[in-house]
């Protein structure tokens, strides 16, 4: 799951308007922002297995710290705690806990049974990734609906704001399409080579902050 998480980030901005878009983007993708760091540190492992699923050749061998159900809840609570400390807004902090946990729920729908509940076994996943078409339709549908929902409440008054917002949408969609339909990595690609480019996802947090700065809420 990739753009589907950002769909949640956009919807969360309307659900919790006191959080910035950068905050909701960080929350919805927190597990995937942590994951490449853990792979590079050798704590979690990933490999390429072209027979894994139709959508992705990635074999998430071991990633309980970033992606077990229990840890997803803990990361959510940690995120919500810091949000509450910095803003004093407990209701929005609680909503951020849910947004962080939503990542696990969406991954549960798409991944094959590779998501640990606790640490090792049992591992769960509904396996939407076994169908490339099903995955793309589901995620692109979520993302499109979220953009419409977000823009009902947010106006992009200047050319710059439109460019900043729509370039992000196009960039995320392009990455997604390359992942789905582009060339697959070789079987022997080391995990670090898979994880390192994923660090670029931090960029979208800053991009969201930029959108927030030049957009205007319609309810203000
Ligand atoms: Zn994930």
SSE inventory with pairings:
Elements: H1 3-15, H2 21-28, H3 30-40, E1 45-48, E2 58-62, H4 64-67, H5 69-87, H6 90-110, E3 115-116, E4 123-124, H7 132-153, E5 154-155, H8 159-181, H9 191-198, H10 202-214, E6 216-217
Antiparallel strand pairs: 1-2, 3-4, 5-6
Helix pairs in contact: 1-2, 1-6, 1-7, 2-6, 2-10, 3-9, 5-6, 8-10
The structure holds zinc ion (ZN).
Overall description:
With 220 residues, the chain is mostly helical. The chain has one domain. It is 65% helix and 8% strand. The protein is built from 10 helices and 6 strands. A two-stranded antiparallel ribbon has the order 1-2. It has a two-stranded antiparallel sheet with strand order 3-4. Strands 5-6 form a two-stranded antiparallel ribbon. α1 runs antiparallel to α6, α2 packs antiparallel against α10 and α3 packs antiparallel against α9. 38% of the residues are buried. The site of zinc ion has 5 residues, from α3 and α6.
């Amino acid at each position: 799951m990739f753009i589907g998480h950002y769909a949640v980030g956009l919807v969360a901005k309307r659900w919790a308007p006191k959080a910035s878009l950068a905050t909701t983007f960080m929350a919805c993708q927190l597990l995937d922002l942590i994951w490449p760091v853990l792979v590079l540190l050798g704590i979690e492992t990933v490999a390429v297995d072209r027979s894994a699923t139709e959508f992705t050749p990635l074999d998430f061998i071991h990633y309980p710290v970033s992606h077990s159900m229990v840890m997803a809840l803990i990361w959510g609570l940690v995120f919500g705690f810091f949000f509450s400390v910095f803003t004093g807004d407990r209701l929005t902090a609680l909503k951020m806990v849910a947004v962080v946990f939503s990542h696990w729920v969406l991954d549960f729908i798409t991944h094959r049974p590779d998501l640990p509940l606790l640490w090792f076994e049992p591992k769960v996943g509904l396996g939407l990734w076994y169908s490339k078409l099903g995955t793309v339709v589901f995620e692109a549908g979520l993302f499109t609906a979220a953009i419409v929902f977000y823009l009902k409440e947010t106006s992009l008054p200047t050319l710059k704001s439109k460019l900043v917002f729509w370039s992000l949408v196009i960039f995320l969609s392009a990455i997604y399409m390359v992942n789905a339909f582009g060339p697959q990595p070789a079987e022997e690609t080391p995990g670090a080579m898979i994880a390192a480019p994923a660090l670029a996802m931090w960029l979208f947090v800053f991009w969201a902050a930029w959108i927030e700065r030049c957009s205007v809420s319609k309810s203000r």
